Amino acid sequence: MREPLATPVGAARLSALAPGWMKFTRPRPLKSVLETAMDRAQKAESIDTLKGVFEGAGAVVVTHYMGLSVAELNDLRGRLRTEGAKFKVVKNRLAQKAMNGAGKGAHDLFKGPVGIAYAADPVSAAKVSIQYAKDNDKFTVVGAIMGDQVLDAKGVDALAKLPSLDALRATLIGLIQAPATRIASVIQAPAAQLARVFAAYADKDKEAA
Asked: Residue 73 sits in which domain range?
């Protein structure tokens, strides 16, 4: 006597018996696969772009911009552009990946709604950012990355008080043509301040060579 045939079990029944079965056996739609690939490619491109920013900028000022309107952000970008600097809203995880090898202090700056201000000149972005934070309480300076150094907000404020590259060049040119009494007054400026400026510019010149 033949045994009765087993009753076929449908996909819905199998899914109910083993909830994970359908997830592992059903192929993903082509559209979903393509979107995932495009998302990965875009993330990789963003990381490469940020690597270029961190490597090429004299200083990268990290800020919080939550609450700023589109008009206010455009105003900030315009002020930075006038000084040869830029502003970019970033995703923290991508920024942290772009800083491969950076210390924990640098990574800790990237929390919350972050935008970065940067320029080849180490001082320009800091000057504009600090002034804008004074003009608009919705904009906050968190810190900055300058080469291997990580600055807190007070460090950025100190950086903003230093002369820009163009101002420093003008001062040096003026000193060449100045009388000895004027040169002496400049030499009496705080040595630490002058040393930091010259060191920062010297480092950038070495990288560009």
From this structure: 30-160
